């Protein structure tokens, strides 16, 4: 991975560029637009962790983590989870390591907060993201969140 990859907070100076970021047309059914994600982050600032992905000075993607969310709040045995909420890599910028960098960055933040696993969800379908998440080590839990598969990545070497 390049040392020029970095995450930045969304600011008044970059929010317009963030909202213009688009995934490939065949991926639009698998991930919400960045503007929608930013609205969710604004509505839930204690949960959301939105960041832009840059390679040098070029905006190449958006990632949003989530922290301490109960997927089934009515279930007393449901534990709070943290992990990857959203990942949008710009059309024309994929297969360059940006997605892996973004997911690893979210996992690093989850670990920094003292947690031992990251959670994400994905929609099934042709050309969907399942292979990407499985390749990073996420494993389906057998649960669903709406119509999406719930996957978890346990961190190794964590006490």
Automatic annotation (TrEMBL):
InterPro entries: Acyl_CoA_acyltransferase (IPR016181), GNAT_dom (IPR000182), Sper_AcTfrase_N (IPR027455). SUPFAM superfamilies: Acyl-CoA N-acyltransferases (Nat). Keywords: Transferase. GO terms for molecular function: acyltransferase activity, transferring groups other than amino-acyl groups. Residues 5-159 form the N-acetyltransferase domain. It comes from Streptomyces kasugaensis. This is GNAT family N-acetyltransferase.
């Amino acid at each position: 991975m390049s040392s020029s990859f970095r995450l930045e907070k969304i600011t008044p100076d970059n929010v317009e560029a963030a909202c213009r970021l688009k995934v490939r047309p065949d991926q639009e059914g698998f991930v919400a637009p960045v503007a929608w994600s930013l609205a969710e982050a604004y509505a839930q600032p204690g949960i959301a962790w939105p960041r832009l992905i840059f390679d040098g000075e070029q905006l190449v993607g958006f990632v949003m983590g989530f922290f301490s969310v109960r997927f089934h709040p009515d279930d007393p045995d449901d534990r709070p989870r943290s992990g990857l909420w959203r990942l949008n890599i710009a059309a024309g910028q994929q297969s360059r390591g940006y997605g892996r960098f973004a997911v690893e960055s979210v996992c690093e933040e989850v670990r920094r907060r003292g947690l031992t696993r990251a959670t994400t969800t994905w929609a099934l379908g042709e050309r969907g993201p399942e292979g990407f998440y499985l390749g990073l080590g996420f494993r389906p839990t057998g649960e669903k969140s709406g119509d999406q598969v719930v996957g978890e990545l346990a961190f190794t070497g964590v006490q």
